[in-house]
Design goal:
The protein is α/β, with parallel strands linked by helices and about 270 residues long. It has a single domain, classed as Alpha-Beta Barrel (TIM Barrel). The chain is about 40% helix and about 10% strand. The protein has an 8-stranded parallel beta sheet. Helix 4 links the parallel strand 4 and strand 5. Helix 1 packs parallel to helix 9, helix 2 crosses helix 3 and helix 3 crosses helix 4. The longest helix is centred in the N-terminal third of the chain and has 15 residues. Bound molecules: NADP nicotinamide-adenine-dinucleotide phosphate. The site of NADP nicotinamide-adenine-dinucleotide phosphate has 28 residues, from helix 9.
Length: about 270
């Protein structure tokens, strides 16, 4: 599994050609975990991803998500079929429940297991699950079954480190960081926090965003899926996978972007 993948949320707003080329460049540069969802532009982003990865399917670790409103047993099977069609493939490598909705988890998970048996998905997990949701999910699914919990995690929002990441680690569940670059709100060079990152980036011949990704992925349980729809952005982010931050650099970044007290409600986008 690559530590640095590629997100695709809101890619329908980008220049289509540039977005497709960016996905292909990401695959070339080892960012082969491509994350999408049925809800993104009502399937249009899955279609874009399907076009981009046609011919490269074997190199891609493809993740998509079912909308909670569809997550009954039958609804999940149907949503998966539709995603497969849009993605132009016969299998999804990682299929997630997008967030905890009102459908019983038992039904959704039974559908995931059926899809896995049929070879239509290769692994499954959850997204936006807080500790209580995740513990309930483990109770239902059993140990060693849920592959990941995809949650909001970036330098300005480190709440996942308090409780969620340790729980994930105890149960062998990967923590996939979404919006790892703050969804476009990234500290600019010239601000003191931006300059902290810029100083460390210079030492690694990288950019501040790549350093931020390396920081978030510093523990083996964590993966990051930044979104980029420009070739130069992809090139810069790909470097994150090779950055090894020193303990001192990690401490400096952690001090500039403090963890803060635990939040009573899990943050999400
Ligand atoms: P993000 O990755 O935090 O930030 C993306 C923004 O950073 C884009 O505007 C992008 O610009 C810009 N960017 C990327 N590389 C850059 C660079 N080198 N220099 C300057 N700007 C750069 O945002 P996100 O899309 O919110 O999160 C990433 C992915 O997580 C999503 O795409 C989606 O797949 C997933 N996600 C999941 C959930 C969930 O509920 N499970 C929620 C939100 C997101 P360009 O696009 O112009 O390159």
């Amino acid at each position: 599994m690559p530590i640095v993948g590629l997100g695709t949320w809101q890619m329908e707003r980008d220049d289509r050609e540039s977005a497709i080329l960016s996905i292909r460049r990401a695959i070339d540069r080892g960012m082969t975990h491509i994350d999408t969802a049925e809800i993104y532009a009502r399937g249009a982003v899955e279609e874009l991803v399907g076009e981009a990865i046609a011919g490269y399917r074997g190199e891609v670790f493809l993740a998509s998500k079912v909308h909670p409103d569809h997550a009954t047993f039958a609804g999940t099977l149907l949503a998966c079929e539709k995603s497969l069609r849009r993605l132009r493939t016969d299998r999804i490598d990682l299929y997630l429940l997008h967030w905890r909705g009102t459908q019983p988890l038992e039904e959704t998970f039974r559908a995931f297991e059926a899809l896995e048996k049929e070879g239509k998905i290769r692994a499954w997990g959850v997204s936006n699950f807080d500790v209580a949701d995740l513990e309930r999910a483990i109770e239902i699914a059993g140990e060693g079954v849920i592959a990941c919990n995809q949650v909001l995690y970036n330098l300005q929002e480190r709440d996942a480190e308090h409780l969620l990441q340790p729980v994930c680690e105890r149960h062998g569940i990967a923590l996939v960081a979404y919006s790892p670059l703050g969804s476009g709100h990234f500290p600019s060079t010239g601000s003191w926090r931006g300059d902290v990152l810029a100083g460390i980036a210079e030492a690694h011949d990288a950019t501040p965003r790549a350093v931020a990704l390396a920081f978030l992925a510093r523990r083996p349980s964590a993966f990051v899926i930044p979104k980029a729809a420009r070739l130069d952005h992809v090139e810069q982010l790909a470097k994150a996978a090779d950055i090894v931050l020193s303990p001192n650099e990690i401490e400096t970044i952690a001090a500039a972007f403090p963890l803060g007290p635990p939040k009573s409600k899990m943050p999400y986008v």
